[in-house]
Predict the 3D structure of the following.
Amino acid sequence: GAGVSQSPSNKVTEKGKDVELRCDPISGHTALYWYRQSLGQGLEFLIYFQGNSAPDKSGLPSDRFSAERTGGSVSTLTIQRTQQEDSAVYLCASSSTDYGYTFGSGTRLTVV
Amino acid sequence: GEDVEQSLFLSVREGDSSVINCTYTDSSSTYLYWYKQEPGAGLQLLTYIFSNMDMKQDQRLTVLLNKKDKHLSLRIADTQTGDSAIYFCAERIGSSASKIIFGSGTRLSIRP
């Protein structure tokens, strides 16, 4: 597609439920990244995928968080047993060059 | 360690120049970036500079890099109300498609 697409754009979930956030990167981009932006905060790196290499999961805050990327394209970020502190905007980005990422519009997750 | 620091707020008068400063810690940075985030929107890549450059100019934007002091700045000439946004400094560590570390962002507000 023309840009990075994320869905849903907004998600409200009850504490303790699992959620899945989806990212469709730009076609042909080999690198895909997930970041989290809490209210009034900067961007917190979560995970990145590069081609067929093992993902860099060093930013995942707990074992409740996981992500996969199928067929080198679409990625899903899963948060199990959501907590209120998980409320944030989850941003996905993709890249094919050194010249920076292209970000999606994000998924705003609210845990109530 | 990897750390990018910025001041949180900057207020300038319309028509004046804005200078947003950033310091980073990792001397192996290859690219440095400035991203802009308008209210309710995703992150937009404004400009980038390769680490062997010391200046880059793009219309109203001037990026200065002092690699010795690990200091990056973004100057916006003739600041307009449409420049109101949060500006994120970011550095890429290491080789192509490595993760990018973001600062906390500087909120630029324009006063008449």
